[in-house]
Amino acid sequence: MSNVSGRRRVGPEGAASEPGEAANRRREVLRTLRVSAEPLTILAIADALGVHPNTVRFHLDSLVGAGQVEQVGPGRKGPGRPPLMFRAVRQMDRGGTRHYEVLAEILTAALAGEKDPGAKALAAGRAWGLQLDPAAASEVPDSSERAIGRLMALLERLGFAPERRRETGEQQVGLRHCPFLEIAENRSGVVCSVHLGLMQGVLQSWAAPVTVERLDAFVEPDLCLAHLGQAQ
Fold first, then answer.
1. What CATH number is associated with residue 33?
2. Going by DSSP bridges, is the β-strand pair 85-88/162-167 parallel, antiparallel, or unpaired?
3. Alpha-carbon distance 205 to 138, whole Å?
4. Number of domains the chain is built from
5. Which residue range forms the structural domain that includes residue 28?
6. What is the 3-state secondary structure (H, E, C) of the chain?
7. Domain check: are 72 and 116 in the same one?
8. Would residue 59 count as lying in a domain?
9. What pTM value is reported for the model?
10. Residues annotated as region Disordered (predicted)?
11. 188-205 and 117-132 are packed helices; what angle lies between their axes, rounded to 10 degrees?
């Protein structure tokens, strides 16, 4: 859709407005549309808020561009050009803030309060791993090397920054980054058990000839070590 006004016309609260004031006014425009049972014209929104129509046009341009407001067909037919009509898109605001860390802390704390939290976290991680890469489950890796390579690629996608290591004949995967670092620092028994279960589960889902026998957390300040072994 083209700009609501045909060309951008900055009203009294245009680009020169304070960012906080502009954001507040934009929320007011969106709120007015959300509480209305019917689509509204620019003039109706302006009257409801006691602002200049150009101010409403300015903010509608942004709201339409963000997918929060949509233009709809005119409510009447007759002579003359019908006014533009707008309504709020009925969905949660996808542009809002996210606090997934809070959710992770809540769930981790709940697991930590359970009897034998490490075992339950391991089982949860394994269950997640079993369904994490279903497309590859039918492609059984024909060697440990292929399985480890596939595991490395998956861990890279998940943000673990993995690296291949070998120590006295043992194959290892070093993890240089923890996607849940702040939580793992306080709840390593839970978070690291989830990660161990994840690796075990995904290898099991591939019917890989290799598994992760244990995961040593923070063997160095910037390193966790996954120890690999033959699957039983």
1. 1.10.10.10
2. unpaired
3. 9
4. 2
5. 19-88
6. CCCCCCCCCCCCCCCCCCHHHHHHHHHHHHHHHHHCCCCEEHHHHHHHHCCCHHHHHHHHHHHHHCCCEEEECCCCCCCCCCCCEEEECCCCCCCCCCCHHHHHHHHHHHHHCCCCHHHHHHHHHHHHHHHHCHHHCCCCCCCHHHHHHHHHHHHHHCCCCEEEEEECCEEEEEECCCCCHHHHHHCHHHHHHHHHHHHHHHHHHCCCCEEEEEEEEEEECCEEEEEEEECC
7. no
8. yes
9. 0.67
10. 1-25
11. 40
CA-to-CA separations, 73 to 39, 82, 112, in angstroms, rounded? 9, 9, 55
* Same domain as 143, residue 62: no
Residue showing tokens 């997918």: 67
Q: pLDDT tens-digit profile of 193-229?
A: 999 999 999 999 999 999 999 999 999 999 999 999 9
